[in-house]
Amino acid sequence: MFNRGKKRMLAVVLSTALSGAAQAKTDLTMYYPVAVGGSLTHVVDSIIADFEKQNPDIDVKAIYAGNYNDARVKALAALQSGQPAQLSVMFSIDVHELMDLDAIIPFDEVATSDEDKTWLNSFYPALMKNGQVKGKTWGIPFQRSTIVMYYNKDMFRAAGLDADHAPKNWDELVDMGKKLTKKDASGQVTQWGAMIPSTGYPYWMFGALTKQNSQVLMNQAGTETYFDKPAVIEALSFWKSLGSEHKIMPEGTIQWGTLRQNFLEQKTAIMWHSTGNLTAVKKSANFDFGVAMLPANKELGSPTGGGNFYLFKKSTPEERQAALKLVKFMTAPEQAAKWSIETGYMGVSPAAYNTDALQRYVKTFPPAAIARDQLEYATAELATHQAGRVRKLLDDAIQATLTNQKSAEDALKHAQQQAERVLKRFE
Amino acid sequence: MKLNMPRHQQIYAWLLLFPALALLAAFTHIPMIKTLWRSFTSSGMQNNTGFTLDNYRYLLEDDVFWQVLSNSLWYAAVTVPVSMILALAMALWVNGKIRGRSALRLAYFTPTILPMITVANIWLFFYTPEIGLFNNILGWFGHSGYNWLGDPDLSLFSLMLMTIWKEAGFFMIFYLAALQGISRDFYQAAAIEGSSRWTTLRRITLPLLMPTTLFVLINAFLNAFKLVDHLFILTKGGPNNATNLLLYYIYENAFSFFDAAYASVLTVVLLSILVVLAVFQFGVIERRVHYR
Amino acid sequence: MSFLNIQGLSKQWADTRVVEDINFEICEGEFIALLGPSGCGKSTTLKMIAGLETPTAGNVILNGQNITNRTPGQRQLSMVFQSYALFPHLSVKENIVFGLKARKVPVNERNKRLRHAVELVNLGDQINKKPSELSGGQCQRVALARAIVSQAPLCLMDEPLSNLDTKLRNEMRTEIRALQKQLGLTVLYVTHDQVEAMSMADRIILLNAGRIEQMGSPQALYNEPASSFVARFIGHPPMSLMTRDKHLIGIRPEHITLCKSGYSEGIATHNPNKNPNNNASVIHCDYHGADTLISVDFQGSALMLSLQGHHLFQAGHPLAITWESQHEHYFSAKTGLRTANL
Q: Transmembrane ranges (chain B) (predicted)?
């Protein structure tokens, strides 16, 4: 009896060992960026740990790789040098260039089951815009944001404005901005009405203004740009007028990197910034602040931004399946809700906002839902072939206009010309 | 000079030199030649697309390149002499018999030991118009201040200012060491000969510091072209390329625009500038330097 | 009338008194050696006169004018350094005329003085070289030429020959002395080498621990040392000293002789044992070529005598020595000062 039991145990152990050897562990390497300040790496680590617990046959190495640029450079360098990387989080707007480099595969090739197809359709359509090219899905939204308007409710009250009524359109922005701009006895401005950052990612902020003026900046294929359309020129002229004509914003460029500090030190009543800053502002603000959708002109609007998951081509079918499993896990409603609460990035699917955790959080902190509500009006971020160069052309045009070196029309026409030259071979 | 070494000693010498030569070749010379080769034979991220001058043709047509080149030259032409003169002045000052000079030396040296990125992060807040230190100081005098980094007429100057602040302390250390190496007898002899302070500085101190000056000059020029860390934090080359420098532009092309071919061309340009500078410095100035 | 007058010159570093109340006068055209062991304050004194150190007290009067508070350049003096202090980046010519250029002497005058000085120190074909291409002796000549062209009436020299080898030093000694006489220079010459001082100087000022020990001609210092310190310092080999009661008795080695065939008249007074042949025993012999230096134990005191020719005795070898009493010097054992002969 005793003997038989021993034998059986041995058999069990042996068979387990054999089956373990037969289906060896799948190793996955993933690079990911963090673009806003804060220790977000431990959040990623804990999600990965949960995943490995549920999937003991998959081993994930998640490598933090700096900002979006760094992450792209490191992932591509690793691939070129023959080191394995099966998936990565990279800039959503890198899609065209990653395709041009033949580095990625569409999710449709891997996600073939009906369940998978349902999953592919579970995200907010606005977040899918940057990831879908030529009818296929190349990027799955993960750390995604939009631009929202942060405003100082104390200042609104002090200026005799309704603290629960943020500017709803451009005219209101100018009118309220004028009331919110304060000067001292010598005529120096001590408090600005509004600030829109124009370094770092000027094209992104500008995408909001053009969308509000009912004009997108490029086609979905990323082969054409519309920088010289009248609505675009009008949008840039409006941006410039905030400083030069209405005097509610400093002239010249405004630093992306120090804007949050300006807002926290109450030097400006309104700032436009990424939702990724929400948690940080919430932690540091010692005044009453609100978050609202960006104001409309012809319509409401903001570009989306942030990072998507991509699958790399250099991988085995098993690795691809494992990678898909990981992506599905990390974008599942519970994980997305956790990620959103910890960072301020948005929940990527409606299901995420239906989780208990996020519903509770939104109830105690309503601004967390603004980004989601604005998604309805969101458009894709500027993404083309040769995206870096094209983006820079637009950045330069915006800065040249804001710093008074060129008129909006001249600057944008020049940028359009150059962009057409760059994009010619992709038509 | 001709060395007449026995054969076995020559072999020995080459064996000793070999590790350093191998490393230099692997990490410096071969990549340099590869870059040159690439600049003629690739396009975008694709290598070996056949011999072409397209990349160089694009260089000539590229307005941004010409602006970047002029920025870089201005940047070097201003930061190098100014930081060197400041370094010398500070060294002469802390070399004198004044109270608390070790504290002063430390104060001057501090910027040097901070990483460029840290310095840039600090100065970003100095420069910020509304909450920054500089505009607050100007505010006390009733001045409305400047948009230091946001105004294209001012932004390159702002970068220079920070660079000078960072570099001067570093170069001061070299000058200070050199000054302490000059025998007091020289100054006493000059004093007895009725030499004024200015004459002593011009005819004795400065010539005796020439080897140091040459060394500092080379380093300062190399740094002016090599150090772009602060651009990532402060301006990213903006507004509208007003502060874009050659090495940063190379980075942008290679890693933001995925245009390795054009980055190679720009690298060749940068290398040529550095080679010309080195030849000029070692060839022309060296002859006028007295080494003790 | 005195040319240089030093009055109560003192220098104090924190609690250390380096120079204490020094007074002396120099006449025009004199060659004065400032002699003393290292650390006696001679260089500090010279630097105070040059204006390179500020005195704690006292005055320096040159040619009737109080120059104590003037800068070195205003004092109208020249100086030759031990290190030569030649500017390494300037040619010989530029080194020599450096001061003339600084003082804006017209070109013609400058060239005239340069030619003259170069001729005097015999540097004719070297004037376009750099100091690093010259020998030590040539460097010293350049330093001298630099002092000469300034035409300053007072020339200070700070151990100018101590970096040269013995042979060169002897040559330069003669040359400097000749130059001084030819140009009528007044020279204040700091040295720790008594041979230099004795052979060159008109007068010697012997310093000890920041004070003047004795001042006078070389013969005076040699023949009548004012103190036991001077007695020990001047003369090579130095005077031997024996303690007798409250006195120190000094006798110079060259004045001690051996008794001829074991006999001498003087011996009885110094040898109570009345053993004329053996009153001393040899400790050590040093053969110098022309003579041999022998140190002996004489009644418990070590004496030094020098004998012509080659004499190598074993240690303990008995000797009979003697001297004439007129060669004895007497000093107070307490103060070290010279007293009258007994």
A: 12-33, 73-94, 106-126, 156-178, 204-222, 261-285
User: Do the Cβ atoms of A29 and A63 come closer than 8 Å?
Assistant: yes
Q: Rounded to whole angstroms, how far apart are CA atoms A19 and A17?
A: 6
- Chains B+C touching (3+ CB pairs under 8 Å): yes
The predicted pLDDT at position C187 comes to 94
The string of pLDDT tens digits covering residues C93-104 is 999 999 999 999
**Kindly report the CA angle at A17 between A13 and A18, in degrees rounded to 5?**
120
Q: Give contacts of A261 with chain B, Cβ < 8 Å.
A: 125, 128, 131
d(CA A267, CA A192): 6
Across A194-219, b (16+ Cβ under 10 Å) vs e yields bbbbbbbbbbbbbbbbbbbbebbbbe
| CA–CA distance, A400 with C39 (Å, rounded to integer) | 74
Q: Is residue B191 part of a domain?
A: yes
Which position has the token pair 């999953």?
A119
CATH fold group of domain A25-144+305-368 = D-Maltodextrin-Binding Protein; domain 2 (3.40.190)
Cα A260 to its chain centre, rounded Å, is 17
Q: Is residue B192 assigned to a domain? A: yes
H helix or E strand, kind and range, residue C4: strand C4-13
Among A199, A262, A399, beta carbon nearest to B131: A262
pLDDT (tens digit per residue) in A118-159: 999 999 988 998 899 888 999 999 988 899 999 999 999 999
Phi-psi category of residue A118: left, alpha or beta, with phi > 0 → left and psi -120 to 50 → alpha: alpha
Q: How far does CA B290 lie from the centroid of its chain?
A: 24
Mean pLDDT estimate for chain A:
87
Tokens coding C209 = 């621990």
Instruction: State whether C267 and C318 are in the same domain.
Output: yes
Distance from CA of B290 to the nearest CA of C (A): 6
User: Can you name the residues that pair with A136 across neighbouring β-strands?
Assistant: A133
Judging contacts by C-beta atoms under 8 Å, the chain B residues touching residue C51 are 191-192
Domain with C39 in it:
4-224
Q: What is the ipTM score, two decimals?
A: 0.82
Helix, coil or strand: residue B33 = helix
> Tokens at residue A385, please?
């072939």
Q: Do B258 and A386 touch (CB under 8 A)?
A: yes
The single-letter code of the amino acid at B25 is A
- Chain B residues touching C52 at Cβ < 8 A: 188, 191-192
Average pLDDT over residues C60-75: 90
